[in-house]
Structure formats: C-alpha cells, structure tokens
Amino acid sequence: MQRFVKPSLIITCFVPATPEAEDTAAHAYLARLWDACGLLGITEAFGGLPSREEPAPESDAVAAEFTILEAATREDGPGIHAAFRFAEHDVRGLVALLAPNDLDTGLGQWNTLLDQWSTALTAAGVTDPPPDGILGEFRVFTALHPAGTPRSQPPVAESVRRHAPPSGADDDTWWRGHDVTEHGFSVWRTGPGDPRDVVTDFCVLAPLRAEGALDEWVWAREGENGLRPLTRYLMHAAKAGYEARRYHTLASEKPLHKRRAASDQESRALLRALQPGASGEPVSLKDVLAAAAMLDQTQLGPHGTLWAITQHRDLARTVNIAVTNMRLHTPRLRRVGAGPSWPERDLAAAENLIAQVQNDVEYLSTARERAEAARTAATAVTDRALNEYRNRLSLVQTSTLGSLLTALTVVQSLDYDLPLPKSAQLPTILVLAAVALLLPLVVLRQAAVSAASLPYRWIDSAAAGLLGSSVCWLALTLWRLHLGHAPPTPVMTVSACAAVGLAVTAAVHRAARRR
C-alpha cells in the first residue's frame, strides 16, 4: 500500500448573491464551474435533492437559510464524484468533490485530479483566471495515511511541497510549517496566504482511521444538509478577502491623500472667497456660490469625501461580521513549525484591514469637518446677502408699483381727463394693466431671482404678448383716428392684435431660453 492513499480534490467557490451593478462576471464564472462538473460526468440526481433537471427556485434576493439549488453525482466509475450549488444569506456558492478512492497512486494523483478539473474548466469556456468579483475560490487537496500522524515530518512536508500545485510565492517556504487539528489532520496552506488572493490551495493529510471525520470536516455529513466546518470558515474568510480587494480598489481609484487634498483645497478656496467680509468689504456672492459648488463636488461626487466615508464604514462593518463568524468556525489547532497558524494569519490580516479602514475614516472625517465648517460660514454669508438682496428687490418693486398707483390716484383726485377719444380709452386701460402685470416680472428677471424654467418663461412671455397686443390695439386705434377714419373693426383689431401678440410671445420666450 502506498504511504498516502485515497487522494481527493474539493473545489469550493463563493460569489456575492447581489453583485456590484452590472457585474455579471462572478455569477457567469460560477455557472461555468457547474458546467465543468457536468463535463466530468457529474449529472445524475441523488438523495432527493434538487437536480439539474429540477433545480430549486433561485432569485437575487438574500436567502434566509442554507438552500441547495442543484446537486448531482456521477454514478459510473469508482469513488465519489459529486457537486452541489447552494445559497445562504448573501452568498451563492458551489462545492465539488473529486474522490477516486484510489489506494495505489499516492499524492501524485493530486496533479492528475487538478489536470482533469482544469481540462473540464477549459471545455466549459473558462480560459481566464477567476474574476475579482467572486468572493473566493478554494482547492482542498486531501489524502489519507495508514497509521496516525506522520512521524517523519520533513519527508512528509517535502512530499506535500512536491505534489502540491505551484504557489506562486516569492518566498516558497509555506511547506516548512503546518497545523494539526483536534482530529489529527495535518493542514498546509500553500503560498503566502495573502487575503487578496482569489484562489487559495490547502493540503490536508489525515489518518486512515479518521476518514469519516475528514469527510465531515471538508465535504458532507450523512443525513445532513449544510456547509461543513472548513467550508463555512472559508466562506467567511472569502468575504474578508473580497473586502480587502475592494479596499485596495478604492485606494487605487483615488488615494486617500488625494481625496483629502481635494477637499481641503476647495475648503480653502471657499474661505478665500469669504475673506473680504472679515474686513468689512463686500463679498462677491457669485464667487462664494461658485466656490461652494466646487466644494460640494468634492464631498458628494462619485469620489467625494462623503461617499468614501460611508463606503469605508460599510466595508469595516462587513469585515467585522466576517471576523466574528471566522472565530466561531476556527478549528482548534496546534502549530508545528515556525509562524502563526493559517486562521491566525487570516484573522490578523482582517483585523489589520479593519484598523486601516477606521484610520482612513478618521482622516476623511476631519477633512469633511473642515469642509462643513467652511460651508456653514458660506451659508451664513449667502443667507445674509440674499436677505439683503430680497429686501432691496422688494423695495424696488414696491416703489415702482407705488409710483404707478400714486400717479393714477392723483389723476383721479384732480379729475384730470386725458384728451383721448372714447374709442381709445379701453386700449389705454389694457396697456396700463399689461404694464402693471409685466413690470414686476421684468424686475425679477433682470435681478436674476426668477427661475428660467419652462413655466416661468411662459408667464413672462404671456405677459409680454398681452402688452404687445394691447399696444397694437391702442396704436391701431390712434392711427385710424389720426387719419380721420372710424375706429378699426373688430375683425381688423383681433387679427392685428393676435398676430402682434403671438410674435412678441414667441420672441420673448426664445430670448429667455437663450439666457
């Protein structure tokens, strides 16, 4: 019998249930993994579970509890080849087992199983590395040895190093130390264990007598549905790794110091615009509003301080939850060799990430506070200036209308009769009424207080058209009387006034739109 027997490979992949907007690569990748399982002959239903032909209903919503969406096995051939897709809370995932149960091949079969899996992936259309949008992918290589924990550790570790997939680490010393679980499993994690790695490999050696315990730890327990302890730990570790990648993506889009510098630069620009007011000089309201708008952009824009603060807080909260769950599912381990155990490295990396994110939030918050202080000062100045402006505008409007009313009152009190023919009196009244309607609108428009939106433009245009029509009627009447003719007929009056009124309305509306 070989020194190591029954080599197997467990593939586990996790993706977010609700990925980032329009990012379908993660779910498409998970679907390709399921297709690869089918190409390996894992197509038959088993155990009364949802199958490829009759999968469980699936939605983008968060699953309330663990749910198997599809499960399949391969009935022909030796060993166990099976897989299932599942949903749990905010995660969708896949677990596949390739276990030929061979007693004669030794650890060399790890590479054979990996080659079979890689070939199936290529046939399923996977030609590129996993997308960053997945939470994480893990490959667990297992094998059994006949008698207890191997005593000769250096030869065993060298055998694991020789047969494990390449780690890609610059300092390839991962195999010099490993962790022993309470069941006697020896566990190596290949490579440096960077939490930002999308794919991570584990090698697990277990005593032959503990084969059932190993299956329950990494694959399944008979009569139960749900993720096993190692898989559940890896799911939460994958969440922490995903958030670590998101953090570095945020930092690469716009580094923290650039966000703070942009915010402080616009805060200082706004304070400079307010500076004349400190010495009693008039403040340019236009400059203040322009500087405030630029400051708001640094706070509320896509890369603004406010967005960054809230994103970092969400990220820290997610990692905190992942760390709590990782602690719940961390196995009791005994370290053999130098360095910390792989759960200790995972937890330390996650806690360092939380500390870094919290520091970033503090730095961004201080920049946000400076911006808010400058914005508050600008608001006080602009409110005071706008109040003065509105008071002055109200005075102008009141004075203008008051002068017209005073003139009309004086005319009435002195019984002054305008030398107007009776036929010209009604057009004159309409002209005065149109002037009284249009004058406040003109004042508001020239003062840039009235909005230039469509409803307000039509009010201005209609008032101008009314004035044009009434002036046309008065002018036409006076011109006819001056020539010694009778007043214009109703048909002539309506036609001329309508034409002039429409022309004036259109001209004013077009001019207001250009402004």
From TrEMBL:
Q: Which residues cross the membrane?
A: 426-444, 456-479, 491-512
> Domain CASPASE and TPR Repeat-Associated C-terminal: where?
229-371
Q: Which Pfam families match?
A: CATRA-C, CATRA-N
Provide the residue span(s) of the region labelled Disordered: 147-174
Keywords noted in UniProt = Membrane, Transmembrane, Transmembrane helix
Q: Where is the CASPASE and TPR Repeat-Associated N-terminal domain?
A: 9-222
Q: InterPro entries this protein is in?
A: CATRA-C, CATRA-N
Question: Under which name does UniProt file this protein?
Answer: Uncharacterized protein
Organism annotation: Actinacidiphila glaucinigra
Lineage, please? Bacteria, Bacillati, Actinomycetota, Actinomycetes, Kitasatosporales
